[in-house]
Amino acid sequence: MTATATQSLRPHLGDFNSVVCFKAVIVGVEDTLGPDGAAVVFTRAGKVRGRALVGELGLSGSNVPVEQIAGLLDAAIGRNGTCLAAVTRSYRDGETIVIETQDTVCSAGEPLGSDRKCTFTLGAVWGALEAITGELYLGEHTESVLRGGTSDKFVFSPL
Questions:
Q1: 127, 50 in Cβ contact below 8 A?
Q2: Strand order through the sheet with 86-93
Q3: Which terminus of the chain is more solvent-facing, meaning fewer CB atoms within 10 Å of its CB: N or C?
Q4: What is the dihedral of CA 115, 113, 99, 76, to 10 degrees?
Q5: Helices marked H in the chain — which ranges?
Q6: What residue ranges of the chain have pLDDT lower than 50?
């Protein structure tokens, strides 16, 4: 059974929890598995979530234009959705697809200069992109607001 806007699995608190609690999970898993092991786990978990989300939205295999993907994802995971991240822009750069985000859960509370990567958010966007397009990609977090970027930028190269 999946939760919807009208049907909560938690009737008293609703479907959302805090960034503080989610970050505690991330830090705890990193402490247990190390940064590389945790990155694999969170990226994969994000991909599973992104694919499921696209399925719930009825967009699997829809192959909408790349420029429209940001708006669709932002509606689902941005301010009016689950608040994972604001998805601000999606576009092609040669053969790659670039998706830019702001206010990712991963960068919340992090000091400027932090080397934290947005593995879960990267995975969620990656899984969603693959489910929408029906294509496989190699995803990479290339730019971060924590390290002077104007956004958290995810670049997807076709396989």
A1: yes
A2: 86-93, 96-102, 152-158, 137-143
A3: N
A4: 90
A5: 19-56, 66-77, 119-133
A6: 1-5
Distance from first CA to last CA of the chain, Å, rounded?
34
Rounded Cα distance, 124 and 77, in Å: 9
Q: Structural domain boundaries of the chain?
A: 19-158
Half-sphere exposure of 102 toward its Cβ, with a 13 Å CA cutoff?
Answer: 7
CATH class, 19-158 region: alpha beta
> What per-residue confidence (pLDDT) applies to 15?
82
SS (H, E, C) 89-112: EEEEECCEEEEEEECCCCCCCCCC
Q: What pTM was estimated for this model as a whole?
A: 0.90
